[in-house]
Write a structure and sequence with these properties.
4 domains, globular, alpha/beta, eleven-stranded mixed beta sheet, Gyrase A, domain 2, 17 helices
């Protein structure tokens, strides 16, 4: 083995606060790049040091986990929830000792010094009272939440919180007063936020106050608590501790799942909308198959003490989910745009729950008892069936709602009123009418979602079609070309490219618009029908000035969405 060829570098080291890709326990994980040596050798050496360190710091019952991927390894240890920062130190020390051994610089003093340092850090971090409270909560089957600042018991109206440094006496707590509430996870590559918002409307129609977390905001009922990305554990805790929350729908994105794990251990149902290529190359997730496994972390929220307690809703039209499903030991419900989908039909014949389209009607069936929920044309967001992706989103929401035992009437009423506008579903296929022309605004940011919007608008009749495109500079040339090729499936008469100066990310001015234009030219569009503007707002303003009766414009808005929305509303 040539030491000079070995390259070992840490990509990320972090805490895992919930059930995660590698385990069902909190702990610490390192993602590292490895080359010049068999990755299994690296994992085996790390394993030896990790076990030695865990024993030396008096954590002999903790476990180790590993995952080998294309260009590296993920290595993790479990640890007490009150000492996760120290757990990171343990894992990093085991990694450093591994690197030292492989590069011939290891000394016994290195191990001893690491143990002494970590013991001090553990002593400063641990809170025995917290572990005692958690053990008691588990014994009494009472839900709890914990973070760096607070510990709480119960969800929604029964939630009560205490500062971590002022915890209550476990023997003086009235444990029976703390209750759970219905909770569901929503994840997938596309359609997550739309599905969450549909569910919010369904639950409202069912007479419950719905709390939602999403990549856009955290909201309880009609009250938005804050704007921003709340798809991780902090948003879930804030929502579940809010006294007005009666049912919770938690959007969980790939990043949060891989960074921290599940926000809470157990939920009643979960939905995976789809899996498509997006954000690959992060946290050791380099393939769509691996991404599907990352999304499927939500399945662990349906399993308690090895027993499946909830329902996982899956898209039968997604080949990655179909391939993964046999590995998921939970009750499943499948949905599909095609009643004859083989996966759906097989599940239905076995008496399983399914949701599908038949004769333009959305139907839910369980134990072969069928219910017609609503007609496609009665759902505004489907654009009379042109928006196939929103039909799929409706099917997934129906299946998830039924998994939460919500009545059909509430589901039907919600879908009949939920619209693709800036109020119900901001940024997702929002529709405007200007000069008797139709304008659709979306911020599709991957090929899968771009393709869905292009197919939708290709299916809509129009006298002339306008398409506005912009892309972030950190996309590769190949990604920008693929996104552009997907978008021009709309078959626009005019293509407007827009510079997004704040998202240049290393590229020069004009570079991305030129790449969009060159892709369109190569596909047969004429230079005279391709125009470029300095910003999305300027491009949108130009299109609005050109619109005539029966025209159609698709504005793919990466930035300046609020300004463009205001422009469209003021026409």
């Amino acid at each position: 083995m040539n030491v000079e060829n070995i390259k070992l570098s840490v990509d990320d080291s972090r805490r895992l606060t919930g059930k995660n890709l590698l385990s069902d326990q909190p702990g610490a994980i390192i993602d590292a790049f490895v080359s010049g040596i068999d990755k299994l050798i690296v994992v085996n050496i790390w394993s030896v040091y990790a076990k030695r360190l865990l024993k030396a710091v008096n954590w002999p019952n903790e476990n180790i986990y590993s995952r080998i991927f294309e260009d590296g390894v993920s290595i993790a240890i479990s640890a007490p929830i009150d000492a996760l920062y120290a757990a990171c130190e343990v894992n990093e020390a085991a990694w450093q000792l591994t690197c030292d051994e492989l590069t011939g610089t290891l000394s016994q003093e290195s191990f001893t010094a690491a143990v002494d340092r970590i013991k001090v850090e553990i002593a400063a971090e641990v809170i025995p009272e917290l572990l005692a409270l958690i053990a008691q909560a588990k014994a009494k089957n009472v839900v709890y939440l914990v973070d760096d600042d607070e510990f709480s018991l119960g969800y929604g109206a029964t939630a009560q919180s205490w500062p971590i440094l002022a915890l209550p006496d476990k023997d003086r707590i009235n444990w029976s007063q703390y209750k759970s509430i219905p909770i569901a996870y929503v994840t997938g590559t596309n359609g997550k936020s739309t599905s969450v918002r549909i569910m919010s409307q369904i639950i409202k129609q069912a007479g419950q106050c719905c709390g939602v977390t999403s990549t856009d905001f955290i909201r309880v009922g009609e009250n938005i608590l804050d704007h921003g990305d709340y798809s991780g554990p902090s948003g879930a805790r804030m929502l579940l501790r809010h006294h007005d929350t009666q049912t919770a729908i938690l959007e969980v994105a790939r990043g949060g799942l891989l960074r921290r794990g599940l926000p809470i251990d157990n939920v009643d149902a979960a939905l995976i909308t789809n899996v498509a290529e997006d954000h690959l190359g992060q946290y050791g997730i380099n393939t769509v198959a691996a991404l599907a496994q990352a999304k499927a972390i939500v399945t662990k929220g349906l399993i308690e003490n090895g027993v499946s307690n909830g329902t996982l809703v899956l898209n039968a039209d997604d080949e990655n989910l179909v391939a993964l499903a046999p590995e998921l030991p939970v009750n499943q419900c499948w949905f599909s745009l095609n009643e004859n989908n083989p996966t759906l039909q097989q599940h239905k014949q076995q008496g399983g729950a399914v949701c599908f389209v038949r004769d333009q009607q959305l139907i839910f069936a369980d134990s072969n008892e069928e219910s017609v929920i609503i007609a496609v044309n009665d759902i505004p967001m489907t654009l009379n069936g042109a928006a196939l992706h929103n039909i799929a989103n409706a099917l997934g929401a129906i299946a998830l709602a039924k998994s939460l035992n919500i009545e059909n009437q509430a589901i039907t009423a919600a879908l009949a009123t939920f619209a693709s506008n800036n109020e119900d579903n901001p940024g997702r296929g929002n529709q405007f009418t200007i000069n008797n022309a139709q304008v659709i605004v979306d911020f599709a940011h991957n090929v899968h979602s771009m393709d869905a919007m292009a197919v939708t608008t290709a299916n809509l009749h129009a006298k002339r079609k306008f398409l506005m495109l912009s892309h972030a500079g950190d996309r590769t040339d190949a990604e920008i070309i693929a996104l552009t090729k997907a978008a021009i499936k709309m078959q626009p008469d005019f293509i407007i490219t827009a510079e997004v100066e704040q998202y240049l990310r290393g590229r020069t001015l004009g570079e991305v618009p030129k790449l969009i234009a060159d892709t369109a030219l190569a596909a047969g569009w004429q230079q005279s029908n391709i125009l470029s503007f300095s910003s999305p707002f300027q491009g949108a303003k130009y299109i609005v000035e050109q619109l005539q009766t029966d025209d159609l414009a698709l504005l793919m808005v990466l930035s300046e969405r609020e300004e463009i929305t205001a422009l469209l509303l003021n026409q």
